[in-house]
Amino acid sequence: MRTQVAIIGAGPSGLLLGQLLHKHGIDNVILERQTGEYVLSRIRAGVIEQTTIDLLDEAGVGARMHEEGLVHDGVQICVDGVRHRISFKEMTGKAVMVYGQTEITRDLMDGRAAAGAPTIYAAYDVSLHDIFGETPTVTFRADGKTQEIACDFIAGCDGFHGVSRKSVPPNAIATHERVYPLGWLGVLSETPPVSEELIYVRHPLGFALCSMRSPTRSRYYIQCGLAEDIDAWPDERFWEELRPRLDDEGRQRLVTGPSIEKSIAPLRSFVAEPMRFGQLFLAGDAAHIVPPTGAKGLNLAASDVRLLSQALVEHYAEKSDAGIAHYSSRALARVWKAERFSWWMTTLLHKLSDDSFEQKIQLAELHYLFRSQAAATVFAENYVGLPF
Ligand code: FAD
Ligand code: DHB
């Protein structure tokens, strides 16, 4: 088999890149380790920035998002039972949209099927060869056979645990990491949300987040330990832990019900540098992880894909490799801004230790954010997404 760009991973990064390249007549094949159903079963991101919305529109898959997505003009931060609102519209003139990653993935999968572009699911033992040479190849096992794809470029869109980043010689890559001593326990339920807007909660019992997927479907998260066993969290225990973290109004409006999904995600900050190695490019979670608090992971993946698709279009259509040469530095400049914001929001809102000094500083910092127009503006600018 031969293609122009071999894409590893059919998460949002790989599917979006594939769709944008296809629009520009650039051949690509996606290899995904899991089945399509499995990829769709993972409940993850919920908040998307305007630049991500624009890119999904450009890829031709934005119609359902505009119909079903919920536009949010602001966000609420609840500190020890008192809510504070930060208006994105007032501070930045912009808004974000709540539309689940699962739905984005479904729209991208449908778009790819309609375009007739190939995705090979259940592709095992994917292996990258000759990434610094002229003719890289990818080998894999599917349908019981070992197969090979020759290509011009490889896009590693295979998430944090993928094979692409691990294929790079250790002396060619630097990594920077912070592992937080906590995770998020998330529950999806067919119940109306407690509020029209997201509520991020800082409470002595620990962090909580009230989010949603629709006016009848809620998504909640609470901070949990890293060694937590999901089976030790029946629904009642989850609601009992969430309820006392809310304010009076939240407690009154909270509608509980059976969970339709429950999962634990560890919190991590991670950056690999550079993001290009010869003919191999890393994009999305394959190159960097942010803790979910700032809602930046999927948006950062989309901004990598935007830069990478533009670079590849320039290469094929304009015979210019300037975009390719600058991909890593341009992507990393955005990555570190999102890393800073996500780290800052995480350290501000979670119970990280029993250290009373740390807790008092958190409170002082939060009250500064609520009092200072400048601080709230910087927060809003970061949350809705920095311009390119
Ligand atoms: P992934 O989604 O991880 O996709 C990678 C794909 O590659 C997977 O399908 C995987 O099966 C496949 N793969 C892996 N290894 C191989 C291999 N060897 N061969 C072939 N295929 C392979 N982000 C936001 O922007 N906003 C939010 O509100 C938000 N909330 C989040 C909440 C939670 C609880 C979590 C866990 C994450 C959240 N994120 C959020 C982050 C967001 O989900 C990720 O950043 C996003 O999924 C990254 O997409 P990706 O395509 O780069 O990687
Ligand atoms: C959601 C996830 C996040 O990480 C976040 O910061 C906001 C919302 C969500 O799943 O809805």
Structural overview:
The protein is an alpha+beta fold and 388 residues long. It contains 12 helices and 20 strands. It has helices at 12-23, 36-41, 50-58, 63-68, 88-92, 101-115, 235-242, 248-253, 297-317, 322-349, 356-371, 373-384; strands at 5-8, 28-31, 47-48, 70-72, 74-79, 82-87, 96-98, 119-120, 124-129, 137-142, 145-150, 153-156, 174-189, 199-202, 208-214, 217-224, 259-273, 276-277, 280-282, 288-289. The strands form 4 sheets. Strands 6-5-14-15-16-13-17-20 form an 8-stranded mixed sheet, with helices on both faces. Strands 8-2-1-12-19-18 form a 6-stranded mixed sheet. Strands 3-7-4 form a 3-stranded antiparallel sheet. The radius of gyration is 21 Å and the shape is globular. The mean pLDDT is 97. Residues 45-47, 198, 209, 211, 219, 292-293, 295 line the site of 3,4-dihydroxybenzoic acid.
Short description:
With 388 residues, this protein is α+β, with helices and mostly antiparallel strands. The protein has helices at 12-23, 36-41, 50-58, 63-68, 88-92, 101-115, 235-242, 248-253, 297-317, 322-349, 356-371, 373-384, and strands at 5-8, 28-31, 47-48, 70-72, 74-79, 82-87, 96-98, 119-120, 124-129, 137-142, 145-150, 153-156, 174-189, 199-202, 208-214, 217-224, 259-273, 276-277, 280-282, 288-289. Helix 9 packs antiparallel against helix 10 (322-349) and helix 11 packs across helix 12.
